[in-house]
Design a protein that fits this description.
Elements lengths: L23 H9 L4 H23 L6 H12 L1 E2 L21 E3 L11 E5 L6 E3 L12 E3 L4 E4 L13 E3 L4 E2 L15 E3 L6 E2 L13 E3 L4 E4 L13 E3 L4 E5 L13 E3 L4 E3 L19 E2 L9 H4 L2 H4 L31 E2 L9 E2 L20 H11 L10 H44 L13 H7 L8 E4 L3 E7 L5 E7 L7 H12 L11 E5 L2 E5 L1
Parallel strand pairs: 3-5, 4-6, 5-7, 6-8, 7-9, 9-11, 10-12, 11-13, 12-14, 13-15, 14-16, 15-17
Antiparallel strand pairs: 1-4, 2-3, 18-19, 20-21, 21-22, 22-24, 23-24
Length: 538
């Protein structure tokens, strides 16, 4: 909207009916199409502030590697999920959106991405098959799909996950043979594929599993002979191959070199032949230990002749009955410890007759390999007690940290929105006032017949509207006595900003003055507009 500095003078002659028309409509149209560049600047500034505030969070945003995200989606497509346990596997990032069963590392790797650390899908009533895309989870340490209904073969691509430490596939309906590629997993601590329908021989490549301690392949359809190469496993503690179809010689002589082996379970196979006399001959066993379990094999039909009764006999639970320590708690009064309310005396307490409610921990051992678990019961209970986390330690968990970050982002966005609205409101008020003043300054009156005066002439006639020239004052403005350059004395009424009258009153006053008639009065009506000033010269 441009301002015209030239003054417009519209004269009026007695007896003439003026025809004035305001140009407000055109001015309003211009005002309405005003683009308000200042508002865009303020809005852009507010948006920039939000971006700057959130930029550390956005630049530090952690997402999973795209290949692993694709692999997880392929894994889901290969599975049937009737219980909808994996229903959130199509929302957001697998790591930051906490996909069910997907556990990621807390920090990015050198490639700048997060990676899957564990895939925990146990006991979810899943069926279908295992996708070969599992091999793309190259940073994974734990693969756990125990106790589902997954069928099909074991993908050989699992052998690509060289970081894998736990391979837990037991309790499914897997078929086919064991992939040779599993022997390429140098960090594998436990291989647990029992309770399936795996067939074929044991791969010789399994002899490369130098860190494997637990080897559980029982309750399958494995066949062939026992590979002598397994004796090369330096860390092996438990080798559980019972309830399969192994045949041939009972135990290779090289197995006597496995000095760390605690248990070799070979029950219910088709083994015949002999047991090496040197096997574990230098080991001292207590009354509850049996390192070799052979019952259910043809070789046990000649147990007495082969002197292997200790390997073929059954054990009763009475053999493992242990005495539990007691103290003087039997002398404590019953009324001091309400036993019916789950309280009990603590014999291990240094305080006499100390009564407390114990923390009950239940556990269930599903694998048949734990048939002889009773000798280790006390030790296992002690272990459970030692690993119970100390809840007295304080710290911010992942959930709390995520809540803080999300809260900070939400707060920043809210604050920025409030600031932006306040700025816009303030600008709109100012713009509305300026637009109104500009609109008024554009208004003109059109009357036939002209004699023009400039605003500069009005200033000169009134000595710059000097107060000494003031002869009166009304609600619309002040009236000054002016002397034109030709000596003519005139009265000049000047509208002031903030006056009590608006444009409607201004035009009304002009119309009334135009109707004045007197024989001694010569009326000269001039209207001069300039920016914020409107003058009437009579």
């Amino acid at each position: 909207m441009a301002f015209n500095d030239s003054m417009r003078h519209l004269p009026w002659r007695p007896g003439q009916k003026q025809n004035y028309k305001a140009s407000a409509e055109n001015d309003y149209r211009l005002s309405s199409s005003f683009e308000m560049p200042g508002l865009g600047v303020w809005a852009l500034g507010a948006l920039l502030a939000v971006c700057l505030y959130c930029s550390p969070l956005l630049t530090g945003a952690q997402i999973i590697h795209p290949s692993e995200a694709s692999a997880l989606r392929a894994i889901k497509r290969s599975l049937n999920d009737p219980m909808k346990n994996l229903r959130n596997w199509n929302k957001g990032d697998p790591c930051t959106s906490n996909w069910t069963g997907v556990l990621c590392f807390n920090q990015t790797e050198n490639d700048g991405y997060l990676h899957v650390q564990e895939l925990q899908l146990l006991n979810m009533n899943l069926s279908g098959s295992l996708s070969p895309d599992l091999g793309l989870l190259s940073y994974m340490k734990i693969l756990d799909v125990m106790w589902n209904k997954i069928s099909g073969s074991i993908p050989k691509e699992i052998g690509n996950i060289t970081s894998l430490e736990l391979l837990l596939l037991n309790g499914n309906q897997l078929t086919g043979s064991l992939p040779e590629e599993i022997g390429n997993l140098p960090n594998l601590d436990r291989i647990q594929i029992d309770q399936n329908q795996i067939s074929g021989p044991l791969p010789k490549s399994f002899a490369n599993l130098n860190k494997t301690k637990h080897f559980l392949l029982d309750n399958n359809n494995l066949s062939g002979y026992l590979p002598p190469e397994l004796s090369e496993l330096p860390s092996l503690l438990i080798l559980q191959l019972d309830n399969n179809n192994f045949d041939g010689n009972t135990i290779p002589a090289s197995y006597s070199n496995m000095s760390k082996l605690l248990k070799l379970s070979l029950e219910n196979n088709s083994l015949s032949g002999s047991v090496p006399s040197t096997i574990w001959q230098n080991r001292t066993l207590n009354g509850t230990e049996r390192l070799i379990l052979l019952q259910g094999n043809p070789v046990c039909s000649n147990a007495n002749q082969l002197n292997i009764v200790q390997f073929c006999g059954s054990q009763s639970e009475d053999d493992f009955t242990t005495e539990r320590s007691t103290n003087s708690s039997t002398d404590c009064p019953l009324q001091s410890c309400p036993l019916g309310n789950f309280y009990e005396y603590v014999p291990e307490s240094p305080l006499s007759c100390f009564c407390a409610a114990p923390l009950l921990v239940g556990y269930r051992l599903k694998s048949p390999g734990f048939i002889d678990f009773l000798p280790y019961e006390n030790q296992f209970e002690g272990y459970l007690t030692s690993v119970i986390p100390d809840t007295s330690k304080s710290g911010i968990g992942k959930g709390a940290l995520a809540g803080i970050v999300l809260g900070a982002i939400a707060g920043a966005v809210t604050l920025s929105a409030i600031i932006t609205l306040l700025i816009m409101r303030r600008y709109m008020r100012k713009h509305h006032a300026v637009s109104k003043r500009r609109l008024l300054s554009k208004i003109s009156i059109q009357i036939d017949g002209v004699k023009g005066f400039t605003f500069k002439e009005m200033v000169l006639a009134t000595d710059n509207f000097n107060s000494s020239s003031q002869v009166g004052q009304g609600g619309y403005g002040k009236v000054y006595k002016g002397i034109l350059t030709d000596g003519t004395v005139v009265a000049i009424k000047r509208a002031q900003e903030g006056s009590l009258q608006g444009e409607k009153e201004f035009f009304t006053e002009i119309e009334l003055l135009s109707r004045v008639h007197h024989r001694n009065l010569s009326l000269w009506l001039d209207i001069v507009t300039r920016k914020m000033n409107r003058c009437v010269n009579t």
